[in-house]
């Protein structure tokens, strides 16, 4: 008979990025004994939950994301109230693109006067800002739910909230095994010989999710890490103040190719983030840190000159370059499901957030907590979300996941550098 350890956690969460940290907080609120493990130092810059900004927007071609973002916005406010400081600066959101773009048209249809009111412009949206010039045949969609999230600060906020409620956090804890032990539960082992036991386990390992699940079960989850780049550009003299959140400048996204997105000038004085929603397939443990993305920089510079003429210096390229990672699924939808097999409903995987999940971290954390301890997601039912869209079953038999009528948002396999 296996020796029963005296120190058993109700839940062990593997991965302390935004998803794991939010899950730890939500589970701790249920008066559960929580262990949060991180393979690197806390608040590291090697994954997907760091840096100066993420955007929050509720405009999506898929109908299931707007209710999730709207619910997440409520949870962001509640967490900030509990912490006593802010990590999210609200703005409007502006989406641009050719009027015939199926993705943009679908995003417009998903707006609602009650939940997400929208204003459509078929000429330059000067009521919002004079910075954008719409090419012929383009339209703009303005919605009130936008904003800039400080990611590293946000992760730290949720970790501190979880710590207040008794969560145990251990960093530099590289997981090498997850096993089911009879009469004990789930055993989690790390490279330094430490062993932890939990009734439940949640895997929120970001770009390492595929590797971890493969090691534990032999199962190949279709989650491909991408190495991505973020750029900050110098605003031309005289236009700095009009591109700030205080001036009403929006977070923005441009549909079609290239898919460009950006934030108001806030993170660095006199600079604005304008980047490409794209990246290169990578091994998260052996990324090419020398990659400068010059080919992609040129595409963004061309977009700036076309859509924001005369406002941003492009000749010398971006002033600041930063790196990040996406964890892509074939359909760009999340994976939030029970791992199954020998682990049944005792292990949940939450990954594959495909470059657009950070904003929904608080909701994902809440849904995971409900899955683990209730076996169902009450919050999803309340907002009309069918969790099957995030299920692992959608990839069975070599399927590519959820079928959509519009094209990819992320250029997942860019060849040029």
TrEMBL record:
Question: A GO molecular-function term, please?
Answer: flavin adenine dinucleotide binding
| Cofactor dependency | FAD
Signal peptide coordinates: none
Q: Which UniProt keywords apply?
A: FAD, Flavoprotein, Oxidoreductase
Domain FAD dependent oxidoreductase per the UniProt entry, residue ranges: 10-371
State the InterPro entries in the record.
Answer: FAD-dep_OxRdtase (IPR006076), FAD/NAD-bd_sf (IPR036188), MTOX (IPR045170)
Q: Which Pfam families match?
A: DAO (PF01266)
Q: Which PANTHER family match?
A: FAD DEPENDENT OXIDOREDUCTASE DOMAIN-CONTAINING PROTEIN, PEROXISOMAL SARCOSINE OXIDASE
The UniProt entry's sequence similarity note says: Belongs to the MSOX/MTOX family.
Q: What is this protein called?
A: Putative sarcosine oxidase
Annotated organism of origin: Dendrobium catenatum
